[in-house]
Specification:
The protein is mostly helical. Among the domains are: 92 residues; 38 residues. 69% of the residues lie in helices and 0% in strands. The chain starts with a helix and ends with a helix. The C terminus is likely disordered.
């Protein structure tokens, strides 16, 4: 419970420090956005790991939170004292805060419009890529074109040997082997007669 509460406060503080350059430019410094992101990360870890933080780790988190709060208040007071009296008075006026929130809203609207235009451009680009790619069948092995006149050396081999046959079981394999043996046996007696 204490870790969840501390994490929620750290998330709120990190968001304030992250938006400080947009809301109060007089109080901000160049690396405030990075430190705001670090505090946001701390708050996120505390909220998501609240059930595991018990005992001495919870005491360490509590002491760390108190230390961060003390150092943060000293930095904030030092920045406040560096302001001139006119800047302090200006920070207290409602007109200045109203204009700051108006500028924040305008920059947020510009960011949303920029994101929409990029998403639309990305959608159009993906649509063009889908349309431009023709649907073509890709074969694992290209088909062989049979020559119109077989060469003299291939006259003894049958044309069915060049194309693979699809077999479904072992019986078809046996039939193919028997047919190949019968096709080879008539040529053998002729060759033996010429030799004898």
């Amino acid at each position: 419970m204490l870790a969840t509460l501390g994490g929620t406060l750290a998330l709120l503080l990190g968001l304030i420090v992250l938006l400080l350059p947009l809301l109060a430019a007089e109080l901000s410094r160049p690396r405030d956005s990075a430190w705001g992101a670090v505090v946001l990360l701390l708050g996120l870890v505390l909220v998501t790991s609240a059930d595991r933080l018990t005992g001495s780790p919870m005491l360490a988190v509590l002491c760390g939170g108190l230390l961060i709060g003390r150092l943060g208040s000293e930095v904030g007071l030092a920045r406040w004292h560096q302001l001139s009296p006119e800047e302090r008075q200006l920070l207290g006026s409602t007109e200045r805060w109203r204009s700051s929130f108006t500028q924040l809203g305008a920059s947020g609207a510009g960011l949303l419009q920029n994101l929409r235009s990029r998403a639309t451009g990305l959608g159009a680009w993906l649509g063009e890529r889908r349309r431009a790619a023709p649907s073509v069948k890709r074969w694992v092995r290209p088909e062989k074109v049979a020559p119109e006149t077989p060469p003299a050396s291939s006259a003894t081999t049958s044309g069915s040997d060049t194309e693979p046959k699809i077999v479904r079981d072992f019986c078809e394999i046996d039939d193919l082997l028997a047919a190949a043996g019968e096709a080879a046996s008539p040529a053998d007696p002729g060759n033996r007669g010429e030799a004898g």
